[in-house]
Amino acid sequence: MSDVAIVMGSISDLQVMQNTVDVLKDLQVSYEVKVISAHRTPQEMLDFAKTARSNNFKVIIAGAGGAAHLPGMIASSTSLPVIGVPVPSRYLKGMDSLLSIVQMPAGVPVATVSIGEAGAKNAAIMATKICALQNQDYELSLNGYTKAMHDKSLESGKNLD
């Protein structure tokens, strides 16, 4: 039983979405990873979205590139929060993905993060914050993660002269 579902439209998206996995591991958040395509496996995508809540997921992180329909299609089929990660595309460098995910019609929200690795990491942190509303262990993990970033930032400037 996992709190966060990480889905991506293609296995080639794993290069970016691995950042989501890594942060969730660091934060000790339970997750599952799946490849589900809005275009190649639409029925499986709908089945996943419609059963996500009953499968005890709390948040869905959906990474997609190009036309990037996956986050929006999942959001249209579940009441769970969906965080969209725009995966960089070959020709438009992820701008197509970003615009596709962020321009959802009223009533079908997808929380959208930045393109690529930073967005994938931020999606994991945002999902953890959502889950931490009901899980104090996640809140403690977030506090430790934030303190580690703080300390690393301070340490990085100590040898400047």
UniProtKB/TrEMBL annotation:
Pfam families: AIRC (PF00731). Substrate binds at S10, D13, R40. Keywords: Isomerase, Purine biosynthesis. GO terms for biological process: 'de novo' IMP biosynthetic process. Pathway: Purine metabolism; IMP biosynthesis via de novo pathway; 5-amino-1-(5-phospho-D-ribosyl)imidazole-4-carboxylate from 5-amino-1-(5-phospho-D-ribosyl)imidazole (N5-CAIR route): step 2/2. InterPro entries: PurE_ClassI, PurE_dom, PurE_prokaryotes. GO terms for molecular function: 5-(carboxyamino)imidazole ribonucleotide mutase activity. Its EC number is 5.4.99.18. The keyword Methyltransferase does not apply. Residues 2-153 form the PurE domain. It catalyses: 5-carboxyamino-1-(5-phospho-D-ribosyl)imidazole + H(+) = 5-amino-1-(5-phospho-D-ribosyl)imidazole-4-carboxylate. It comes from the Bacteria. Catalyzes the conversion of N5-carboxyaminoimidazole ribonucleotide (N5-CAIR) to 4-carboxy-5-aminoimidazole ribonucleotide (CAIR). Belongs to the AIR carboxylase family. Class I subfamily. This is N5-carboxyaminoimidazole ribonucleotide mutase. It comes from Companilactobacillus paralimentarius DSM 13238 = JCM 10415.
